[in-house]
């Protein structure tokens, strides 16, 4: 099977790493309905595939994502208001479903934050497992300055940086650079320029290669259940998953490799 047909995304897979490039540079990679649906389709396609160990999200031509395509939204407000309101509701909610799906993806999701990282782009940044930000990136929540609200990204931003910082960014329509984004917890690493970002990405992927994809998938699921499941129930579930992992092919190979003082099979090239 091949990947879903995409017009707004560029896809490139190599050695278990899927590179997804948001490809609307004329709009600073702002998201329209098709881009959102294509991202959802790609993540649905790779969900069961543990050969894909990581997904790298980036934007074309120096911008990550400037949020939703406002001009496209206005195109749908012509004519019947009820129909237009429903179309806007569906588009906004479809974005939220897509971000939730990416957040729960079993693969490790890495975001490369360059240029404009605004609105929905910030939402994607906040559900990444690892984020690398350019020092000069413009990262923010401009919605209230446009007379709208950060409807679908708000829960993810609060989960990432906390309520106090999210309030300041949202209610002042504030933006931060990559350095402040790291201090807030949006980004994990800060780089200066494209070459440095590529070098940091290579370092992250090298470390990722030491980890088992199945174990990572279960670990991510466990972490996302913290604060969602009742504490004792979560620990019971975690014990079940631990036993499952230990008896899996990965668990057997990993523990044997440790005892034999060698690299496990998934890390032979790391």
Task: Please give the count of helices.
Answer: 11
Q: Could you name the CATH class of the largest domain?
A: Alpha Beta
- Beta percentage is 5-15%
The shape, in one word, is globular
Biggest sheet strand order reads 1-2-3-4-6-9
CATH architecture of the largest domain: Alpha-Beta Complex
| First-residue to last-residue Cα separation | 28 Å
**What is the CATH homology-level superfamily of the largest domain?**
2-enoyl-CoA Hydratase, Chain A, domain 1
Topology pattern, helix = H, strand = E: EEHEHHEEHEEHHEHEHHHH
Ranges with pLDDT <50 over ≥5 residues? none
Report the helical percentage: 40-55%
Largest sheet: 6 strands, mixed
CATH fold-level topology of the largest domain:
2-enoyl-CoA Hydratase, Chain A, domain 1
Description:
The chain has 11 helices and 9 strands. By secondary structure, it is α/β, with parallel strands linked by helices. It has 2 domains: 9-208, 2-enoyl-CoA Hydratase, Chain A, domain 1 (Alpha-Beta Complex); 213-267, Lyase 2-enoyl-coa Hydratase, Chain  A, domain 2, CATH 1.10.12. Strand 1 and strand 2 (17-22) form a beta hairpin.
Keywords summarizing the entry:
Lyase 2-enoyl-coa Hydratase, Chain  A, domain 2, 9 strands, 270 residues, 2-enoyl-CoA Hydratase, Chain A, domain 1, 11 helices, alpha/beta, 48% helix, 6-stranded mixed β-sheet, 2 domains
Produce a short descriptive summary.
The protein is an alpha/beta fold and 270 residues long. The protein is built from 11 helices and 9 strands.
């Amino acid at each position: 099977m091949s990947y879903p047909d995409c017009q707004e995304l560029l896809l490139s897979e190599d050695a278990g790493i899927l590179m997804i490039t948001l490809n609307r540079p004329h709009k600073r990679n702002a998201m329209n309905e098709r881009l959102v649906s294509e991202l959802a389709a790609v993540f649905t396609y790779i969900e069961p595939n543990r050969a894909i160990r990581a997904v790298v999200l980036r934007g074309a031509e120096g911008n990550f994502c400037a949020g939703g395509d406002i001009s496209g939204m206005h195109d749908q407000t012509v004519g019947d208001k009820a129909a237009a309101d429903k179309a806007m509701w569906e588009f906004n909610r479809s974005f939220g479903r897509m971000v939730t799906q990416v957040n729960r993806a079993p693969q490790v999701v890495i975001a490369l934050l360059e240029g404009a990282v605004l609105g929905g782009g910030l939402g994607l940044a906040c559900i990444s497992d690892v984020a690398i930000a350019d020092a000069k990136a413009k990262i923010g929540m401009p919605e209230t300055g446009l007379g709208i609200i950060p409807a679908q990204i708000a829960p993810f931003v609060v989960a990432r940086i906390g309520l106090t910082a999210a309030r300041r960014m949202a209610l002042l329509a504030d933006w931060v650079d990559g350095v402040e984004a790291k201090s807030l917890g949006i980004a994990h690493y800060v780089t200066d320029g494209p070459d440095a970002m590529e070098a940091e990405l290579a370092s992250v992927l090298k470390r990722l290669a030491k980890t088992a994809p199945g174990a990572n998938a279960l670990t991510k699921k466990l972490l996302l259940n913290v604060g969602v499941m009742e504490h004792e129930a979560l620990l019971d579930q975690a014990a079940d998953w631990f036993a499952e992992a230990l008896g899996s092919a990965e668990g057997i190979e990993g523990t044997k490799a440790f005892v034999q003082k060698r690299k496990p099979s998934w890390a032979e090239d790391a």
